[in-house]
Amino acid sequence: MKVRLRNPDREVELAGGRKVHDVLGELGINPDTVLVIRERELLTREDRVGEADVIEIRPVISGGSGGNRMRCRRCKDPAVVEIRRHNAAFCADCLVRHVREQVKRAIEGHDMLDPSDRILVAVSGGKDSLALWDILLELGYRADGLYLGLGIGEYSERSHRIARAFADGRDAHLVEVDLARDYGFDVPTAGRKGSRSTCAVCGLSKRYVFNRAAREGGYDVIATGHNLDDEAATLLGNTLRWQTDYIARQSPVLPAEEGFARKVKPLYRLSELETAAFAFLRGIDYVVEECPLVAGNTQLRYKDAMNHLESTSPGTKAQFLFGYLDRAAPLFASQDEAELVGCERCGQPTTGRFCAFCRAQAQILGERLGEPQGGRDERGERLGEPQGGRDERGERLGAARDEPSDRETVESLSDEVMPVEMYGTVRR
Amino acid sequence: MKVRLRNPDREVELAGGRKVHDVLGELGINPDTVLVIRERELLTREDRVGEADVIEIRPVISGGSGGNRMRCRRCKDPAVVEIRRHNAAFCADCLVRHVREQVKRAIEGHDMLDPSDRILVAVSGGKDSLALWDILLELGYRADGLYLGLGIGEYSERSHRIARAFADGRDAHLVEVDLARDYGFDVPTAGRKGSRSTCAVCGLSKRYVFNRAAREGGYDVIATGHNLDDEAATLLGNTLRWQTDYIARQSPVLPAEEGFARKVKPLYRLSELETAAFAFLRGIDYVVEECPLVAGNTQLRYKDAMNHLESTSPGTKAQFLFGYLDRAAPLFASQDEAELVGCERCGQPTTGRFCAFCRAQAQILGERLGEPQGGRDERGERLGEPQGGRDERGERLGAARDEPSDRETVESLSDEVMPVEMYGTVRR
Q1: B59 near B79, Cβ under 8 Å?
Q2: Who among A240, A301, A323 is closest to B320 (CB)?
Q3: How sure is the predictor about B35, in pLDDT bands with cuts at 50, 70 and 90?
């Protein structure tokens, strides 16, 4: 039996004539974290694979099809996906319906979207953002996509092609911004030249560009594909550090305010397993590869910890995230009190004189923010006033810095997850 | 090379002539979770082991001795223990001093103990409780021990012998309570007959007996050996469920109040690695075996998750626990508002008519609490009044119950960790 594994792509020969469960066990793979695919069908843990089969094990999901075992909770047809935390399995049609219902429930439960809203979906080319765009379009919302070119070699090129093809296939409008073309740097360069980690500057750039494009394009709301796994991992990271201000801003919807478009996360009730199965079953071509720069990303370590706990206690992630939203969020509301003003360089909201993006950009490009140069930057915007102080986070502005300390790296990563400058303050 | 592993005891033959680090890697063991011992010396990850060596890998620690590598942070002698979260290593003498200083810092920082206090140390026979008793005696405190016999076969017998030997060797006073003799049931029976998990009823019994013995024996304070790993795991478990009332009661010191003796945890700043190394270096004979009933214990899964995160980010546990105490605890203070009254059966404080221990005991012994029997129980105490309602947690009182649901098991385990009836309310 041939088994095709992803990230990195490779093939192994294994003994067939046994259950998927046993194959995954031999490979040390948690069934909840992969899709098992034979030709165009999904396999559950209980399905048997033959000696002559070729199967693909694709992160992220568990699945299965046909056979005499699991049945769809709704229609009793053979199930193709098992959702352990719901103690349920679904056939293809019912899984698609289940996912759409969870999204509707999220949207209605939090007043996320109005039918008249112009929505900008942040599209990476991955399963979550394309599934989200697909669902919003199917539900009849006015949803455009925004693709941000990060300049990460072949990975970014493939992501771009896939996002473009999705839009063309549905006659949908895709806004395109390119970090190098429009802002003068790409993510690999930023990771090498700036004081922030690659992931931190990438996240910062995404949030900045999404908000700016939404505001300048007349959109009412930004929709992102953050799922239950993302949100639980972020909450875990912020809670392990008791970053009470970041915890306070963790919400499926952040209302518009002072220069910030409204932000919504309609997939927050769905696991990666469910969004990946949905994308597969809807025939959505998405980028399976992980970003090549992501190795060691802190967020992935938190996901790993949550998956570990979930594997023995299905429902841990949902209990953690929903329990926070239901019971603990009110306790943290007082921690979110940042005052926002316009960045002196770009006008976007910030807690300091210059927003985090402009500071990072200036550092990467070797410019000095706030120098009395009186000039204009590469976007024709006037550069700020002279000053040599420190901003609200104690960072020196503009000037070249040494290697960041551990503490700064931690702050940087927190910032990556939830900067006040992107999400704004939440009124509860 | 012969390697002796514990829990369960076994020996394996491995290739020698390499570093401890490589041996542990082959065994898939996290160096932070074991002591590596050759005869009477500890080995660090960087020490070499020879083909003819016999080494013991003992949970829980990393260590090392001699050689030309790590040096003690204080005296520059060869180090025997590495504390990665402090980015430090210590020789034997300085490790002992370091541990005592951390305990002194905990005691002084939280006003845990006064020199005139009569202290009752909850002694299990394990490394933490014996290390704690040793430290308190060395620091000149008036500390007696309390050993509770749980009736878990040879494991309890060995624990008893070791606690007894420790007390005799130091001319210290050991109070002894036996669950079967004094309360009519042992832990294995309770696990089979009651509606609570074995671990839950064991934890409940310990807390009940410790408090009652302290109150009746005229002690001012109960000291327990909870260490940093215990406290971080408990906080993680309570936070994953956002049990805001349990989170609110997590503190290194819980003041005396309404039927509760003061409770202190002087080891809360020290990892298991540090307490195990301390116990070993002080020549304290302790029970290395884990409780045979502990398999699948939820708390161990949280420890596992924390160890996993700690292994790539040393300091995660300390940051999580201390960050909570410093920044988040005040946000939860309002969640801790239970009203306590005396249990109608035993007089110990409770939030309901009967305390959790009396309810569990009655269930295990097949008695009915609150029936109009007017009799007295096995301790000569009058049994409570009739009533057929539900208590504050919605549980039916006394009557036999079916298998507990998952939800009840979860509640039971939360209860195990931090029942209001043991810890009382905290005034901040």
Answers
A1: no
A2: A240
A3: confident
What are the residues whose beta carbons fall under 8 Å from the beta carbon of A253, sequence distance 6 or more? A110, A111, A112, A262, A263, A264, A265
* pLDDT for residue B228: 97
Q: What is the pLDDT of residues B411-423, one digit of tens each?
A: 443 333 333 444 3
The alpha carbon of residue B321 is apart from the nearest alpha carbon of chain A, in Å, by 8
Angle at CA of residue B181, ends B178 and B185, nearest 5°: 90
Can you say how many angstroms the Cα of residue A307 is from the centroid of all Cα atoms in its chain? 17
Q: One-letter amino acid identity for B235?
A: L
In chain A, residues with a C-beta closer than 8 Å to the C-beta of B244 are 327-328, 331
pLDDT of A12-48, one tens digit each?
A: 888 888 988 888 888 878 777 788 888 888 888 888 8
At B66 the pLDDT is 30
Q: How far is the alpha carbon of B168 from chain A, nearest alpha carbon, in Å?
A: 43
Contact A305 B308 (CB under 8 A): yes
Given a contact cutoff of 8 angstroms between Cβ atoms, the answer to whether A146 and A120 are in contact is yes
- The answer to whether A30 and A10 are in contact (CB under 8 A) is no
ipTM here: 0.73
By the 8 A CB rule, do A347 and A258 touch? no
Q: What pTM did the predictor assign?
A: 0.76
User: How far from the centroid of its chain's Cα atoms is residue A130's Cα?
Assistant: 11
Bridge-partner residues for B146, per DSSP?
B122, B175
What CA–CA distances, in Å, run from B226 to A391, B252, B264, B266? Answer: 41, 9, 9, 8
Looking at A196-253, list the stretches that DSSP marks H as alpha helix, in order from N- to C-terminal side.
198-216, 228-240, 244-248
Between the CA atoms of A347, A349, A354 and A360, what dihedral angle is there, to the nearest 10 degrees? Answer: -100
- The chain-wide mean pLDDT, for chain B, equals 82
Q: Hey, what domains does chain B have and what are their CATH numbers?
A: 2-92 (3.10.20.30), 100-335 (3.40.50.620)
Residue whose structure tokens are 């005991």: B361
Out of A41-45, A66-70, A207-211, B377-381, pick the least confident. Answer: B377-381
- Return d(Cα A401, Cα B406) in angstroms, integer: 53
Name the token pair of B234.
């408990």
pLDDT > 90 fraction of chain B, expressed in percent and rounded: 51
| Distances from the Cα of B222 to the Cα of B50, B145, B427, angstroms | 46, 10, 18
Angle at B101 between CA B93 and CA B91, to 5 degrees: 20
Encoded amino acid at A331, one letter: L
DSSP A275-329: HHHHHHHTT-----SPPTT-TT-HHHHHHHHHHHHHHHSTTHHHHHHHHIIIIIH
pLDDT digits (tens, 9 = 90+) for A239-263: 999 999 999 999 999 999 888 999 9
**What SS3 class is residue B123?**
strand
- Select the residue of B242, B305, B320 nearest A324 (Cβ to Cβ): B242
Count CB-CB contacts under 10 A for residue A319: 18
Burial (CB count within 10 angstroms: exposed 0-12, middle 13-18, buried 19+), residue A52: exposed
With beta carbons under 8 A apart, name residues in chain B contacting A239: 239, 320
Q: Which residues contact B161 (CB under 8 A, 6 or more apart)?
A: none
Strand partners, B89: B82
The tens digit of pLDDT for each residue in B270-311 reads 999 899 999 989 999 999 887 888 766 778 889 999 999 998
CA A216 to the chain's CA centroid? 23
- Report the alpha-carbon distance of residue B247 to residue B235 in Å, rounded: 7
Report the gap between the CA of A418 and the closest CA in chain B (Å).
18
pLDDT digits (tens, 9 = 90+) for A354-410: 999 999 999 899 888 875 444 444 443 333 333 333 333 333 233 333 333 334 433
